[in-house]
Amino acid sequence: MIVLGIETSCDETSAAVVENGRRVRSNVIASQIELHRATGGVVPEVAAREHVLKIIPVIEQSLVEAEMTFDQIDAIAVTQRPGLIASLLVGTSAASTLARVGNKILIPVNHIEGHIYANWLDREEEMAFPIVILTVSGGHNELVLMRDHCTFEELGSTRDDAAGEAFDKVARLLDLPYPGGPEISRLALEGDPKGYPLPRALRGDSYDFSFSGLKSAVARLVQAEGPTLRRADLAASFQEAVVDILSEKLIHAAIDHGARSVHLAGGVSANTRLREIVQERLAVSLPGIPLFFPAQFVYCTDNAAMIAAAGYFNHQKNPTAYRDWKPVEASTRFGF
Ligand code: KG4
Ligand code: ZN
Hints:
The longest helix has 26 residues, at 231-256. It contains eleven helices and ten strands. The strands form two sheets. It has a five-stranded mixed beta sheet with strand order 3-2-1-4-5, with helices on both faces. With 336 residues, it is α/β, with parallel strands linked by helices. α4 crosses α10, α5 (163-173) runs antiparallel to α8 (231-256) and α8 runs parallel beside α9. Residues 111, 115, 137, 139, 302 line the site of zinc ion.
């Protein structure tokens, strides 16, 4: 089955062609990062306008790169929620119009489920269930249990900021550009992760996370230290605090739920220190249980290939559900 994926939930306009949920034939991403650097973050209205300009060229380019015509597409999968409403509407309008015109199956996809299915891209092997997944980005921060395809149980989430959001806010405090995650991890390479003692919230308490206290602690240090601030040490200490708590809760959840594989997904799964610490702790606590993270860095952050994959697996699970899917029904079903 050939699925055209469409993603416009935040600041990337993306379209991809994916075969059977795994084989990526194309994955075109028009990033708005440069545009949002000027404001240090995403301005929703600016993002939506940019999606309007980019959506059709990006879809066309995805077909060109896949060396396919629109006729060869079996279904269209589109991010339906969560995300910035005006941005989502650009993608869902384009997808539902194309589906109507081309008589294609239309599959609405939850963005977070998309991030989870990024781990199936470019991979042939079957993954053993149950799977415990830590999916973390700028907009979400969840621990999820999957007992089978397309069944998701939320074990925990953040009570305030997502970890990626904390990376972005701390980057601003350190005068680093948006998005902050890659910048902080680069600076952290030169710093001492024990350079500044920083708090770990909700340790051992539950599967929920909290990063606002950590962010405030960094803000206080920046103010108190002024020009004597050791920026690289602070970046390294902050990163260590985040990955320490993320990995600790992920491993606990994997033990508690008898995970047969453990996954990292979402923008923050691009963080190499997070991958390293989870791998180390997994080898100690659950030897033999494999760790998966997206096969390419580009599958960690927002992209349409992951949306096509999630759409494919949803369709496999429930093949008759999407033939007559109408956006208006989904807006009632999903509540926007
Ligand atoms: O998944 P994504 O593209 O967008 C959302 O759904 O939010 O994730 C973007 C987030 C940003 O907050 C960015 O700072 C973070 O992922 N990120 C990272 C790294 N690369 C991206 N955080 C930590 N380390 C990284 N290497
Ligand atoms: Zn995302």
